Amino acid sequence: SDCVFCDTGTFVVEYCGEVVSEGEFRRRMVEDYAHERHHYCLNLDGGMVIDGYRMGNLCRFVNHSCEPNTFTRLTQARAEFYALRRIRVGEELTVDYGESHHEGKLRCRCGAKRCRGWI
Fold this sequence. Notes:
Blueprint: E1 4-6, E2 11-14, E3 18-21, H1 22-31, E4 41-43, E5 48-51, H2 52-55, E6 63-64, E7 70-74, E8 79-83, E9 87-88, E10 94-95
Parallel strand pairs: 6-10
Antiparallel strand pairs: 1-9, 2-8, 3-5, 4-5, 7-8
């Protein structure tokens, strides 16, 4: 589609969920989410995590790409996604997970021309 959803630098969406300590989130991963296949969380500054399992919004489904169309601004309590470039209506929203604690441990399947091969 030629219809533009947003231009470069535009606020797109906030990652929502419950803000908890990294320790509490690790406990939940072992005790509450042990049988879950997907992980809905985003690390914030200051040792905090947004847990998107129970109270998340659609932003938890933004997938990784080595050539993403959004970037994230983090604070101690918020994670906001902004457009890296013009995004078309119907285009999947993506972000680079590269700075997560999984870096270099998960095989990347983003399909980007310049895919690093690992997240």
